[in-house]
Automatic annotation (TrEMBL):
Pathway terms, separated by semicolons: Amino-acid biosynthesis; L-leucine biosynthesis; L-leucine from 3-methyl-2-oxobutanoate: step 3/4
Subcellular localization, as worded in the UniProt entry: Cytoplasm
Similarity remark: Belongs to the isocitrate and isopropylmalate dehydrogenases family. LeuB type 2 subfamily.
Catalytic activity: (2R,3S)-3-isopropylmalate + NAD(+) = 4-methyl-2-oxopentanoate + CO2 + NADH
Residues that bind substrate: 93, 103, 127, 218
Protein name per Swiss-Prot or TrEMBL: 3-isopropylmalate dehydrogenase
Positions of the Isopropylmalate dehydrogenase-like domain: 5-340
Site, as annotated: Important for catalysis: 134, 185
Gene source species: Streptomyces mutomycini
Sites where the protein binds Mg(2+): 218, 242, 246
Predominant subcellular localization, coarse grouping: cytoplasm
InterPro entries reported for this sequence: ICDH/IPMDH, IsoCit/isopropylmalate_DH_CS, IsoPropMal-DH-like_dom, LeuB_actb
Family matches, as PANTHER family: D-MALATE DEHYDROGENASE [DECARBOXYLATING]
Length: 346
């Protein structure tokens, strides 16, 4: 019989609340014969305050044994900036070689967005997940003086660029519109820019059915707002992808709806699914957080594990739920989770 062995990292702030709803919907959507096992990991700000640890080796090892990871959100104002980001979240993405950071954007019905009523928006950003300026390759000279020099080197390898570009072409080829846009800044970042563009052009020859396009990242931000329907699949580096996907979320219904998957397509390590949003400490513990982004991340998780029909059921439930959303009565985190659990079960 089938089974899913899931690691759960609720994390900080609203992380716990939204993950509870994600698991509720996961339980509701899974067929009876699928055995779901979950193991919760206590990682994040509280753990760090208690023990000074971010991600001990023993836990990193244990996480490797699961089929997938569901993560809520990591970070707290009481922890110095970067400690948990680098010591936990990025450590997981790097250790498990999550080179595909998949971030779909869809204009859902009835959502508050400057683009409501526009033509259909349905694109996916394939953000590189293990390289670029995120590698921690930098330093500071004459620190603290008026002559301080800080560097933050963007690392781009032929291997790393080719595997993400190839994955993006394959995703584009599998979609109806078959269009792939490379976003970079190769007029200024010439070394990395040329590696990306050359790799893109080389792999393009293997996918003649895919229409290709190139945009500088600054121009891409204009089109995200003025003409988002022009995008189908976008491939870009780690930092450009980080920034573009927050913008994408803002224009397609808000960060409360944006899902993501940190994927290792080789299956060598578990992939990790998480909402794009952060811990929102200002509303934590009040039942105000929208769990939809986490629930849509559960759909990506199910798709990754081969449960396509269940993934679609969740996505259709979210569309239907949003279509009927009554803006006058704000629902609690729990109420939204309950409503979606009922929809996917029926
Ligand atoms: C994200 C976040 C992270 C990132 C931070 C918290 C390290 O902004 O998942 O988009 O920059 O990737
Ligand atoms: Mn981000």
């Amino acid at each position: 019989s089938r089974s899913i062995d899931l690691a759960v990292i609720p994390g900080d702030g609203i992380g716990q609340e939204v993950v509870t709803q994600g698991l509720k919907v996961l339980n509701a959507v899974l067929p009876q014969d699928v055995k779901l096992e979950t193991k919760e990991y206590d990682l994040g700000a509280q753990r760090w305050h208690r023990t000074g640890e971010t991600l001990p080796d023993a836990e990193l090892e244990a996480l490797k044994g699961h089929d997938a990871i569901l993560l809520g959100a990591i970070g707290d104002p009481s922890v110095p900036s970067g400690v948990l980001e680098r010591g936990l979240l990025l450590k997981l993405r790097f250790a498990f070689d999550h080179f595909i950071n998949l971030r779909p954007s869809k204009l859902f019905p009835n959502t508050a967005t400057p683009l409501a009523g526009r033509p259909e928006i349905d694109f996916v950003v394939v953000r590189e997940g293990t390289e670029g300026p995120y590698t921690g390759n930098g330093g500071s000279l004459r620190t603290g003086t008026e002559h301080e020099i800080a560097t933050e080197v963007s690392v781009n390898t032929a291997h790393g660029v080719e595997r993400v570009v190839r994955d993006a072409f394959a995703r584009a080829a599998a979609r109806p519109r078959k269009k792939l846009t490379l976003v970079h800044k190769n007029n200024v970042l010439v070394y990395a820019g040329h590696l990306w563009k050359n790799t893109f052009d080389k792999v393009a020859a293997e996918f003649p059915e895919v229409t290709t396009d190139y945009l500088h990242v600054d121009a891409a931000t204009i089109f995200f707002v003025t003409q988002p329907e022009r995008f189908d699949v976008i491939v870009t580096d780690n930092l450009f992808g980080d920034i573009l996907t927050d913008l994408a979320a803002a224009v397609t219904g808000g960060i409360g709806l944006a899902a993501s998957g940190n994927i290792n397509p080789t299956g060598a390590f578990p992939s990790m699914f998480e909402p794009v949003h952060g811990t929102a400490p200002d509303i934590a513990g009040q039942g105000k957080a929208d769990p939809t982004a986490t629930i849509l991340s559960v759909a990506l998780l199910l798709r990754h594990l081969g449960y396509e029909a269940e993934a679609v059921r969740i996505e259709e439930a979210v569309s239907a739920d949003l279509a009927e959303r009554d803006g006058k009565h704000a629902r609690t985190t729990d109420e939204i989770g309950d409503a979606l659990a009922v929809r996917v079960a029926s």
